[in-house]
Amino acid sequence: MPELPEVEALRGFLAERLTGRTVRRVLPVAVSVLKTYDPPPDTLEGRAFTGVTRHGKFLDLETAPAEGGPGGGPGADGALHLVVHLARAGWLRWQDTLPAAPPRPGKGPLALRLALAGEPAEGFDLTEAGTQKRLAVHVVREPREVPGIARLGPDPLSPAFDRAALAALLAGQRHQIKGLLRDQSVVSGIGNAYSDEILHAARMSPFRLAADLSDAEITTLFTALREVLASAVERARGLSAAELKAGKRLGLRVHGRAGEPCPVCGDTVRSVSFRDSSLEYCPTCQTGGKPLADRRLSRLLK
User: What is the pLDDT of residue 79?
Assistant: First the structure.
C-alpha cells in the first residue's frame, strides 16, 4: 500500500505534470472506483488543474472553477477536487501518450483514465490489482467532504507535529503502539510498512502499550518517526510513478524482510501474521531477544 512518502512523491510528480493543464476527459472504467456521483466526474472536463495536495494517504487534485462560473462558489461551477485513495493494491500509471481508443470495461486492472487536452494525449490511468476493489475516487467541492479526510489525525511531517503533540496523542491509550501508528484518526499517512520501520528504528516492540511508554521512550519514538518518514520522502523525491514501488522496498529494513538478517544487529527478522496482513520486527533490537507470539498460528515461535 502506498503510504505517506510514496503519496508525497506522487503529489510532486503530478503537480509538475498537471498544474495549468486542462482535463479533456475523465473515463471511469470500474463501477466500484467512484464513491461520489454529485457532481459527476465529467464536470471536471474543460477545467484546468491548479495544484495537487496530499492529505495523509489521499491525493487531492484541485481544478479551477468552470469558465464563466461563480469563482469558487458552492455549486458545480466552483472549484472541484478529484480526490484519490490508492488503497492496498491501487496505483497511478502516467502515460505520455494515451491509447486513441477509449478503454473498455472488463476484468483487467484499469479503473479510471484521465486524459489531458493537447497533443500528444497525455494523462494517467488508475489501476488496481486483485479482487478486493478498494481504490476510491471522489469528485467533491471541498476535500473534507471525503469521510476519510474529515477524520484524519495530524500529519506527522507538519511543523506543528512535535514531541508534545505525539505525547498528547498517546496519553492514556491502552492500545498497542503498532496499531495506534496505523490509525489514521491518530496520525495520518503511516501504514503497515512504515510503522514497522519506525518501531525498529525506535528499538520498540510493536506490542507495547502506548500508555506505558516513558518520557524517554516517547522522545525516542518521535525522533524515529520523523527520521524514518523524512528519509523515505527524500529517497522517493524525484522518482517517477513507475519507480516508486521498487524504491520503497529498497529502503525498508525490516518490513517484508522476514527471514533476512537485521541490518543493525544481524539477528533474523521475524514476522507475526494476522488475517490479512503481517508485521515484521527484529527480536534482538525490539523485544529483548524474545520472539513474539504469531497470533494467526496461535503458537509461540521458538
Answer: 94
